[in-house]
Design a protein that fits this description.
The chain has 20 helices and no strands. By secondary structure, the chain is an all-alpha fold.
Length: 426
Amino acid sequence: MWRTEIRKHTQHNFIVNVLDGAFYGLGFGFTSYEAVIPLFITSLTDSKLLIGLITSMHVLGWQLPQLITAGRVARLKRYKPMVLAMTLNERVPYLPMALIALFITTIGQQWALLLMIGLVLWQSLGAGFTATAWQSMIGKIMPKERIGTFFGAQSAAANLLLSGSAIAAGFILAAVPAPYNFALCFLLTAIFMGISFGFLALTREPEHTHETADIPAFGWAQIKSILRRDINFRWYVVARIFSQVAWMAVTFFTVYAVSRFDASETTIGFLTGLLVISRAIANPLMGWLGDHWGHRWVYAAGAVMMALGAAIALFAPTLEWLYVAFALSGFSTAASWAIAMSFTLEFGTTAEKPLYIGLSNTLVAPITLLITAAGGGLADIFGFTATFGLSIVGGLVTAAVLVFFVHDPHPQTRETIEAVPAAIGD
């Protein structure tokens, strides 16, 4: 039986997938969307609106495709082949990014900017088209009693290595002349992403069986049915939308540090490293608190922390206060990522979960793009005060909706997902 076969490979799959996440994080730190990519884009354009749009593509690309792939994923008997095929699209683009940085004087800033927009979009959508299949595979190969332990270990490993590479990226940006510094960062990302892919490919996943009748049709009728009958889920989507407003400020923290306090590349590296270290500490801690206090309450607490971080950044009298803002943002980001996905799993029956997963992400995607564009536009016109102020309001509204309008789904809906897609996180 395939479930028995999976149990035999649990330890192996645990190790190789933690190593996959660790090397993914190590590579990602050299080209983070919080620091290195915004700085590179800043060297190509002064538009804060465009910087916000480009960096928001990472979140948008993750969210948008998940509902699109839900129907296909639900019918697969093995998720790994789709995962490996799709994840190439989130790893390969870093090589041409390195080439763009290397030959920027030849191709010119305008073409470099256009090509970077295309590559960031490709990389981000690649992550989104991988998301549902990857989450489903992890939900299948990890026994339910070890999923929390696995994601705590993977997140900690990824974020700790990411923090180290983010600090290293700061030194590279300071020590190596431009544009070779950016080219080296992109190249290192590509190399470690390749190693990560190798460990992912070692995953052992037998075929599973399921009754076709257990898989719901994936169409507008089913989507409208869920949104019409599940009022609690509708409020949860509202909270997710306002959370995009709350976490918008993080996108602009790096540019803000440079523009207001003239922060050096090394300081930016340390700030980004602190952001990631705090996220590494917060992921297992938030997960434990979510299991004991409830994911809804921890998600609300994360939104409040993001509002507080944005407020501290906005009113910071000196650069040193930004370390507090970055640390709070790291904790809040852990809540918005792992805790939000864990809470999503509590909605719907097992057979409906692919639709709930897709809806909770895809419905929010257009708002993510709109809000980030608005944040960048406000920064261009009125300065960062308006952008960070909007983020503070978004965090407080998110917390209020989660506390007063959303309730914990009935325990009977918290079913174990074994043969159909689950959402655990990337």
